[in-house]
Amino acid sequence: MNDLQRYRLQFTRRHFLAKSMLGLGGLALGSLMMPGLFRKKEEEILSMPVGLPHFAPKAKRIIYLFQNGAPSQLESFDYKPLLNKMQGQDLPASVRMGQRLTGMTSNQEKFPLVGSAFGFKQYGQSGAWVSDMFPGIASIVDDICIVKTIHTDAINHDPALTFFQTGAQQGNRPSMGAWLSYGLGSENQNLPAFTVLLSRGRGNGQGVYSKLWTNGFLDSIHQGVVFSSGPDPVLYLNNPVGHDSLSRRAMLDEIAAFNQGSFAHTGDPEIQARIAQYEMSYRMQTAVPELTDLSKEPDHIIKMYGPDCLVPGSFASNCLLARKLSEAGVRFVQLYHQGWDQHGNLVGEMPLQAQDVDRASAALVRDLKQRGLLDETLVIWGGEFGRTNYCQGDLGRNNYGRDHHPKCFSIWMAGGGIKPGVVYGETDEFGYNIVKDPVSVHDLHATLLHLLGLDHEQLTFRHLGRRYRLTDVEGSLVPGIMA
Amino acid sequence: MNTTDQRWRIAENVFSSVLLVLQVLLLLLWPFHEKLLLPDWALSGGRLHPILLHFPIVLLSMLAIAWFIRKGLGDALFSDLAFRSVLLLASFLATVTCLSGYVLSHKGDYDPELLGRHRNLGTFTALLSYLLWVFYPGRGTARDTRPFTVLFGISLSAIVLGSHFGGSLTHGEDYLFPDAEETTERKRPPLTANSTVYEALVQSVLDSRCTGCHNPKKAKGQLDLSSLEGLLKGGKSGAPWIPGDPLQSLMVQRILLDPADKKHMPPRGKPQLTAVEINQIEYWVHRGADLNQKISALLETDSLRILAMAMAGASPSSIKVARSYGFPEAGTAAIEKLQSPYRTLRPLYQQGPALQLSFFLKGAFQLNMIRECKPVAAQVVSLTLAKMPLQDPDVKELAMFTNLERMDLSGTEIQGKTLGELKPLSMLEYLSLTQTRVGLEELRSLKGIPSLKKVWIWNTAVDSADWILLKKAMPHIEWDFGTRMDEMERLKLTMPQPSDPDKMIFNSGEMLQLKHPLRGARILFTTDGSDPDTLQGNEYKQGIAVDRPMNILARAVLDGWMASDPKIFSVYARGIMPDSVVLLTRPNPKYLLNGGPSLVDNQKGDAGNLLVNWLGFRENYCQAMVITDGKKTIRQLILSTAINHYAYVFPPQRITVRYGLEKGKWLHTEQLRPAQPANYGPVANQPYIINLKSGAWKYLELSIEPVQKLPSWHSGKNEKAWVFLDEIFLQ
Fold this sequence. Notes:
The structure holds two protein chains of two kinds.
Chain A: H1 3-12, E1 61-67, H2 81-85, H3 93-96, E2 120-123, E3 128-131, H4 135-139, E4 144-151, H5 157-166, H6 176-184, E5 194-200, E6 225-227, H7 245-266, H8 269-292, H9 299-305, H10 315-327, E7 332-338, H11 346-370, E8 377-382, E9 386-391, E10 402-405, E11 409-415, E12 422-424, E13 426-427, E14 434-436, E15 439-440, H12 441-451, E16 461-463, E17 466-468
Parallel strand pairs in A: 1-7, 1-8, 4-12, 4-15, 5-6, 5-7
Antiparallel strand pairs in A: 2-3, 4-11, 8-11, 9-10, 13-14, 16-17
Helix pairs in contact in A: 7-8, 10-11
Chain B: H1 3-32, H2 49-52, H3 54-68, H4 80-105, H5 112-134, H6 146-171, H7 197-209, H8 228-233, H9 250-256, H10 275-286, H11 303-311, H12 332-337, E1 343-347, E2 355-359, H13 368-371, E3 380-384, E4 406-408, E5 430-432, H14 440-443, E6 454-456, H15 467-473, E7 478-480, E8 497-498, E9 505-506, E10 511-512, E11 514-515, E12 522-526, E13 538-539, E14 544-545, E15 550-557, E16 567-573, E17 580-583, E18 615-617, E19 622-627, E20 634-643, E21 654-660, E22 668-672, E23 684-695, E24 699-705, E25 723-730
Parallel strand pairs in B: 2-3, 3-4, 4-5, 5-6, 6-7, 9-16
Antiparallel strand pairs in B: 1-2, 8-11, 10-14, 12-13, 12-15, 15-16, 17-19, 18-25, 19-24, 20-23, 20-25, 21-22, 21-24
């Protein structure tokens, strides 16, 4: 393979410019940009070099507490007393304005409005309304920014999750964490840049799938690594019985020699990625055990997160693990807590779900704050869409369910450049439409990337003839939530 | 006259006639030169002009010298004939020179004003030279030679002036007396945010590299790059760029050509563009080549703006994080050399010199790793040493990071006695000392760092009651003590968990192992179904012996916590292992498992998941033959079934056991009719214990009948129910 081919291959993949994993430290540091960058084939021209923030970042890491199944905003952060007053009455067509229904409620003749069965109180200096189900989050209201006007296009879980995580409803794109790993790399070379922690609640759950933390068309080194509970936090990481780390080292060296030979022959940059991944796994063997050993945490930390944090596989223990991973330099830690899909029996199930997450989420924010890490870490809490203000199925005396509602829902964020103690956006009194300051999912993505020092329009990757980015072709910054 | 003379005269006549024709041509060309149309092949004639012009100048100059000293020259040296002939030749050559000049100027690359002057003077010279020849008086003539002299003088002046303009045309106006600066460096206004992007990124490059040849006075390729009008007009080959398409843009193409190429710009020998300058131009063209776009009109995060501001000398600002670092950059090589998996050195962001330094993996840390960073110490702005085994004597190594703003020393082994060594860090604003053993007295030495804004001291040896003292000593610092947990709050413990969640069936001697993740928690348990507490429970020590099926209830207790809820463990003892179990009837095809052996495989099923480890019977009743070795005394047969009312799985309506010592010869029979539910109940695993007469039974036949008609309260009333069983135990 001649030099020209090699040259072309390497720069086609921009592989060596995403250098953090491969130890190529600085790229065009003080000087403006790599001269060669502008002179490649036309396709490659003029995206900013990857691996470094485009401008000084506010946050360095993200912890995303994703509430899978879609928690109801009307029983959490969006207080709508009108619904209680109009309990049982049909949803007016003037409010609904022809919004599409899911297959589950399209047969319904009536759409009886139902108010929250749980009380709401005001907290903090902003007077934010928080439901009684979330006392922990209510106590940190002065540190968080609640956004009540997020909206999405998708109405069912799979497309909505995919849209939230990858920026498009089709499932072939890289996820948020993969884009961050591509754009910024991992601070700690001994851990992956993107990790995923899963937990299930007792409510009605929808599954999550690896499409949501895939690397898409980016290099496979950017995919999310699932840390699970149990003796083996990362599958296949530990040496098998009878195999010690010296033998492992020798084996890796042999494999690397073969791979290098293969690379010299074909020049496929994926081979180098593979070698880098093996090396990282080797270092992870040392780095991971000291992280996942939660038994050494002091008592007051355990009390702060709640005793659940020692039960592997619970949301609380994932929160604690997330703090440790983030502290160790993992760029994007994503938690999924399943079970929020209350189509029925909301009164019975949602408090159980809230119990799982409330204390631990608040503890995470507090813990980061007291360690001085909250300035650099962005914590986000929220689901993939909201729930309807009308009841799905029969409106029982003491129980009800809510269907999916994409037009408005609530999330909250804390840390890294977010304005604390603020409630952003307004929905109408029916809790159905947005009245002021809508924030689309792409807007949220653009803002998140901005806080990490990346221009969302410049972080692109060329694939199948066009340049892709997390925000696809949309997305604008939301200055109102940025400090 | 002799023949030579005659021949000479004839030659002279011929020559002068030709000259006359050329003169007339010149006279015609002079006012009408613009109307001249020439084919391309004739244009090379114009190229002779710079060569030809030397002849008439030299000849006329020599003639002038000869004329002015003619009185002193003898006849042998000065001959009228010679003079006249040379004058004719000079005139001829001057005319031809002029004509070739017209051809050359046909290409029109020159400044019209200058060209006009040169042309007029040259033509004037050529015409004058003809007149000089015509009116040559001769040396020894009686006629007045003064007019001739004057004419000669005028010609010479015309030559000098005309040549000067010609020289200026070729070499530039300032050729004779060059300016102090070679390039046309006009005074440009200083760059600010209100300047245009073009002024910041492109104009300066053009001024320094291009306008030497591309200016109004000398527009090579008819391209004037010194003004906006000139740019818009373009040059001979077209516009210098196509907005948005740098690679098709002429200027960019010329710049990117191989330097050896003739068309490469700037030409060889002139100062070349640097890589940075090339990038500036390319990127500006790519972004639309807008000549009027102001820097301030761009978003602050726009790369174009950042570049332009960098050129303008301003710091690259971003939304409210503006921080300009005045120190120089560290070299790329120095930074790359310091990268390792355990020490990360990265720029804070792309265009800045600021660096952030982080250390990872406690086991790999060595003090040397900090010392090695000396070459880049001045550029490090943020430093993380969290959890590293750093000690008090090591703190002085950190003093070299003089531009440090943020430092994280949490979880290190320092005790704070040497915090005073951090005094040289005059820019330090944020310091985290959480989880160290730093105390109040040690913190006082931070007084020597007046730039500090915030210090985190959660989980240190400092008591939060000392906050007042700290505030008084250093009022400019915000001290963060972290959260104070409510001491009185009592949380409920989580339930104890089995060490092996899958093990529910125990062989003799095996014990159920329980554990609880919280250090110091104790487990209380009962085996009789009662609620364990300190009064009526046992304390768990090593394990719980399981010798029969039992429901074990266990709670966790710990001082300062509320006791956990009780957790129920339904466990079974394997008891006596039969030799074989044979199914005499066929289970439902969906729930076949392995047949008979499944009933003694120690695989317990979960009543919530009937697909795994359960045998199901509906159409048939279950009949199984259990064969033992006949050596052990059997007292009980325990049957483990599932109950799931919603799934139509009910208790069997009758269980019959026939047993004896020989096959077919049944000595005893036992029957059990389990209680049937009156309403929907929870999903559960239900064991049934059938007491047998004691004996070393060899053959036991088990018959289990499912309910044939579901009760009326059930949604499937009158239909057949299911029976599910997973294990049989003999005690």
